[in-house]
Amino acid sequence: MNRPNWMTSGANQSNSADKSRSKQLRKSSKRPASSGGGTEAKQMRNAQDDQDECMEDVSTSSDTREHNGLLENFKNQPDHSQRAGASNDRGVKKKLVIKNFKGSSTRNDGTENGQNEGGDSVEKDWTVLSDNVFAILEDRKTSSTMETLFSKVRAVCDRNQAKDLYDRLVTIVDNYAKQLRESLSSVEQVPLLTDNCEQYLAKFGSIWESYPVKTNLIRNIFLYLDRIGLTVNEVEILPLWETFMKIFKTTFFPEISKDFKATKLFSALYMAMQKMMDRHTVDSPLRALIEMLQTVHVGEEFSGFLLTQLREFYDRERTEKVPIMTCNEYMTYAEDQISRYSSMVKKNFDEPTALRDVQSTMMTCLIQQAIPEILLHDFDALLSSTNTVDISRMFNLCRQCPGGEDEVRVQFSKYMKSRGDQIITTCPDNDLVSELLAFKKKIDFIMNGSFKSASDSTKMRQCVSDAFETFVNKNVDRAAELISKHFHTLLHSGNKHVTDDRSLDHMVDDAIVLFRYLRGKDVFEAYYKRGLSKRLFLERSASVDAEKMVLCKLKTECGAGFTYKLEGMFKDMDASETLAILFVKYLAHMNKPKVNFNARVITPEYWPTYEAYEINIPKEMRDTLTDFQDFYRLQHGNRNVKWHHGLAAAVVSAEFREGCTKELVATMYQSVILLLFNKCETWTVAEIVECTKIPEVEVVKNLVALIGGRDRPKILKIADVESSAKKDLLDSVKTGKFVVNSGFVDKRCRIRITQVNIKTPVEEKNDVEQEVNQDRQCNIDAAVVRIMKARKELPHATLINEVLQQLKFPVKAADIKKRIEGLIERDYISRDPDDATIYRYVA
Questions:
Q1: What is the CATH number of the domain that holds 671?
Q2: CA distance linking residue 554 with residue 758, whole number of Å
Q3: Which of its termini does the chain have fewer beta carbons within 10 Å around, N or C?
Q4: What average pLDDT does the structure give for the chain?
Q5: Which helix (H) or strand (E) holds 119?
Q6: Do residues 804 and 711 share a domain?
Q7: What is the pLDDT of residues 331-366, one digit of tens each?
């Protein structure tokens, strides 16, 4: 099993020992027999100063403070030689000469007696050293000073007994470690449970608390052996600190091997960590024991054990909680577990990789393996709540797993399509666009608040666009019609929701977003053009600047070709303003009275198709129309003018009774009908049609508007009210007699008569569809001819594909095929004589 390497060995003591062994210390020359005690003591003090500096590197400050008594054993003992040397050197500057050490300190005499004396000296030195080592291990007061012990170690090493001294020291420490192990047997025999794991950890912690301090102090005594004495041996030997830690490892962790699974200490540590996760207070040296595992080189095994236990535990947790929890509840639980465990790992582990591995394991068990199922549990409810905190928690957890962000994006797309289809299906026409805009704002709120941390924001935005395109274009014609009517409402002068230009601009931007998702933009153009013509002709536009601002945005979205006709409508309106100024000058030049008259001259190519009727104009209006026609012929070389009276408007001054005079803003047809009541008090539909030559449909429609209703002014009324009340409104209008409503009351002086559209929505849609189909046929023909002119010869399938790529509206391949047949009949293209599936361009 490959275990993570986030608890590698690296204790401060071993690192310092390795560094210190690399230093080049010089060996002093053989001391002469005539040397005085003061000089020898001084040399010893210098060597002692060096080793004291090294001891500062290798000692552990916290442990040393806890066991100051061990060091005090050396500090309290007097050193007569040092005092003598110090007193002799006072006030006298002496030159200290340090010569290199020799490989061995053999005597020159080489006699057998000298060798015996050397062996006896080594044994005496070892006796002193061993006594003091045992005193340290047994917490007793040492019998010699640190300088004395250091000198004896050096003396033994100089007699080539370094290896023997090393082995004897290791044996003592090994026996001491075994004694510590035996002291642990009292708690080893008790079965480990969650309730008693702290007692076991406390006992183990007390053992480790003294072991590194005592062994480090022993190592300081044998520092010469560790750094210099062992370097002259041909056999490579571990440094003392490494050896002491290895002894501890083999004594307390003998079962560590490749097939290792767990030890009692590992299980106790895991139980203590689980108790902390259950919010219980744990009184045990958890951090110290984890550092101990790292120091004795078993941290890697513990890391593997811990990750295995976490994997098993959270696999069980996931299996139990996913089926019974909602998405939000489970994500809250998972975040809490990961956050608390991460805090505990930060507190007790030094290695940063420990935190990363624990988080990775928990993310895999709790999130990655739960994503396919948990995102199906009330995921829609989580998004519908628009709680950015909960949604962000879910998204941030999922995106840290491989493929998690993609899975969230898929479920997010399903939610948008499902909710969008519901809106399209259930909402009435009047509320559809407002509901879609509210839903889009909700999605934008989630995107900006919760999904802003997405690793691939482009894919997330594309997901939103694809989902909206899917349900907005479920019924393309309906969506295009309603969005265009929404623009008409925004730009109409009667819109009460627009307070200033800034709010209007914001609303237009929102509507443009929906327009961007439309595939049938030519249908939108047809409806928008009809609404724009009404606003311009009836002067009901909120602002010309607002109208041009919308055109600019549409041009940015679809190009200049899309707004070509709409811009032409404004050009006609500007040209009409110029003509009105010239017409006033013309009347003055012809010595005719000035009239309040303004004609709109339009180009049929730009405007919707309107039906024009020749009607009998009252004399009050006829003269002015004739004057303008003469003026226009004079300006444009005898061009004829065709009047569209159905698009005209007039202001009629009406006196309902004495003292009740109002100005009525009416259409041309309404004005002509009202002027008839100057001739006769009562009129029927048939009589009005015969007198004015206005089509009956238009007469009925305008009479309904003049009759009014609950919220509309009642200019006319039906004479026989009782009989008309029993009939349908249209039947009453067609058969009833109309008179002026002499009891008309209104606070306003100028009253606008609202138009009534009797034409059914189906008929209007058919008119628009017919107009759109004509434009589409022309666009298909132009695309086919343009492609064939460039390619000269193409197979049928290739031509169909290239035409579909160029067209910006949805079209079927069968419709393209019909247009190709028409172009063949008109000799724009021809079929290949040998292969009928290949078309050729006819120049």
A1: 3.30.230.130
A2: 31
A3: C
A4: 80
A5: helix 112-137
A6: no
A7: 999 999 999 999 888 888 887 788 899 999 999 999
Indicate the number of domains in the chain.
4
- Smallest Cα–Cα separation from 220: which of 23, 14, 55, 76? 55
Q: Please count the other Cβ atoms lying within 10 Å of the Cβ belonging to residue 47.
A: 18
Q: Is the pLDDT of residue 66 over 60?
A: no
269-275-276-282 Cα dihedral, nearest 10 degrees: -70
The answer on pLDDT for 291 being more than 50 is: yes
For the chain, what is the radius of gyration of the CA atoms? 51
State the Cα angle at 110 between 108 and 112, rounded to 5°: 145
Same domain, 234 and 178: yes
Instruction: Using the CB atoms, write b or e for 86-100: b if 16+ within 10 Å.
Output: eebeeeeeeeeeeee
Sheet holding 660-667, edge to edge: 649-657, 660-667, 750-752
DSSP 8-state code for residue 106: -
Helices 162-183 and 146-158: crossing angle in degrees, nearest 10, is 130
| Domain-located, residue 43 | no
Of 95-104, 224-233, 282-291, 506-515, highest mean pLDDT: 506-515
User: Are 153 and 138 members of one domain?
Assistant: yes
Instruction: Quote the DSSP letter at residue 195.
Output: T
Q: What is the maximum alpha-carbon separation in the chain?
A: 163
Most confident by average pLDDT, 109-118, 456-465, 590-599: 456-465
Residue 508 C-alpha from the chain's centroid: 27
* Residue range(s) defining the domain that contains residue 580: 573-636
Q: Tell whether 242 and 178 lie within a shared domain.
A: yes
* 50 in a structural domain: no
Give residue 607's identity as a one-letter amino acid code: W
Task: Assess contact for 295 and 253: CB atoms under 8 A.
Answer: no
Last residue of a domain, one of 254, 270, 293: 254
- Which of 236, 254, 272 finishes a domain? 254
Question: Can you give the CATH number for the domain in which 174 is found?
Answer: 1.20.1310.10
Note the pLDDT tens digit of each residue in 306-335: 998 999 999 999 999 999 999 999 999 999
- Closest-CA residue to 716 (of 703, 734, 729): 703
Structure-block tokens of residue 818: 């019909």
Could you write out the DSSP letters of every residue in 504-559?
A: HHHHHHHHHHHHHH-S-HHHHHHHHHHHHHHHHHTT-BS-HHHHHHHHHHHHHHH-
pTM for the model stands at: 0.70
**Cα 150 from Cα 40, distance rounded (Å):** 14
Residues 609 and 724 both lie in one domain = no
The predicted model gives 17-43 an average pLDDT of: 34
Residues 738 and 700 in one domain: yes
CATH number, domain with residue 814: 1.10.10.10
Question: pLDDT per residue over 542-592, tens digit each?
Answer: 888 889 999 999 999 888 888 998 999 999 999 999 999 999 999 898 888
Same domain for 752 and 769? no
Q: Exposed (0-12), middle (13-18) or buried (19+): which is 236, by Cβ within 10 Å?
A: exposed
If asked whether residues 612 and 663 sit together in one domain, one would say no
At 128, list the tokens. Answer: 């002193």
Pairing relationship of beta strands 660-667 and 649-657 according to DSSP bridges: antiparallel
pLDDT of residue 18: 41
Interacting residues of 123 by C-beta distance below 8 A, sequence separation 6+: none
In a domain, 687, yes or no: yes
CA distance 727 to 712: 20
Place of tokens 């307070």: 499
Cα separations in angstroms, 389 against 218, 275, 385, 386, 769:
58, 29, 11, 9, 47
Instruction: Please indicate, yes or no, if residue 19 is contained in any of the structural domains.
Output: no
**What is the residue-wise DSSP string for 199-237?**
HHHHHHHHHHHHHHHHHHHHHHHTHHIIIIITTT-SS--
Distance between first and last Cα of the chain: 77
